[in-house]
Amino acid sequence: MGEGLLADAGLRLGSSGAFALGGVPLEDVAARVGTPVYVYNAEAIRERYRSLAAALASLEHRICYAVKANGNLSVLRVLRDLGAGADIVSGGELDRVLAAGFVPEHIVFSGVGKSTEELGAAVRAGVGLINLESLEELDHLALIAAAARSPVAVGLRVNPDVTTETHPYIATGGGGIKFGIPVDQVPEAARRIGLSPHLVLRCLAMHLGSQLLDPAPFAEGLRRLLRLIHDLGPAAPALSVIDVGGGLGIRYQDEAPLDPSTYAATLIPLLRSTPYRLHVEPGRFLVGSAGILLTRVLYTKHSGGKDFVIVDAAMNDLLRPSHYQAYHEVVEVTPRGRRVQVVDLVGPVCETGDFLALDRAMPGVRPGELLAILGVGAYGFVMASQYNARPRPPEVLVDKGRFALARRRETASDLMQGETPTPLTHEAT
Predict the structure, then answer these.
(1) Number of neighbouring beta carbons within 10 Å of residue 75
(2) How large is the average pLDDT for residues 350-360?
């Protein structure tokens, strides 16, 4: 395994011969909190944010963190303290970012299916922008804003029909998918906003997809947004923001990640002479490499010509390998130099699809030993479930040699909260 993955996370071998994250021995975390457990390195998040902010410094810009990547309140607070805005896609995420102390004016609410309740909550909270994704949503928000007698700044999330090389489940900027307003409907959307006394068009937005490693699609999409703005002309007199979404790819295996300076060099020449503020909405880039999942080996077995390592983490804890066929590097917390063998790393869930790594070459491990799964700070815990009645794992934040529980481990009682075995005993009246 290359040193880049370890450096991205802030993992280093300590004097004891075991890995530490952000100066905290992982064995200490496991001993205190148990396994499986998500562990996030606050300083790694700060380094990523500062590198992107520095690359974009010559433009007026705002980095709005995509909360869907990791919504833990402690992670949100780290980013808020750096000056980040927030990109949200649900009412629950709105509650989270407000609880973490984000300035409402720095919140962008996107998402293809916002409910009446969610739109109303966003209007009442005074979020900075609501990015609209259909003409029907536009008309619906106009009614909500009129009832609230409140001016609402909106953006149009445009589907620029730009092809990207990424997993089809996370490609969001091409034609024929659910996201965004088609380019040919944008003039009509701008016209309807102009007719509403309570809506103000401030932004044109796009989002091409996630885990993008090539900057070229960003340039193509941005050019299309700029052409649209030119064509709208007097129909968008208050437009002041261009939102290019997120999607910056990171290193999971041997990829060349999209460097912030390369990304910025793609955008800056196109925006330097314009009056627009740039919004970017990275999620994975800021937090993905900063997280690991600690898991303990339960058993090993040989069956049907294959070797299996069974650990206490499962697909309900980390869905990406099963759902996306995603690769995550796995390292021994205490490397012992044993002979390498090819194994399937699997969990206890009652599904053949419950795996964390398939046909993976790794040193032989034994029951009771700790493994660290890398690159899980984004789309890890947030996609976890309680399948097989398995409580979700805790989350821990480490920062410069200290660590603390950011979310406790769920219990069986938590899983049954709100349920009753006798729902018909007292029928609702």
Answers:
(1) 26
(2) 96
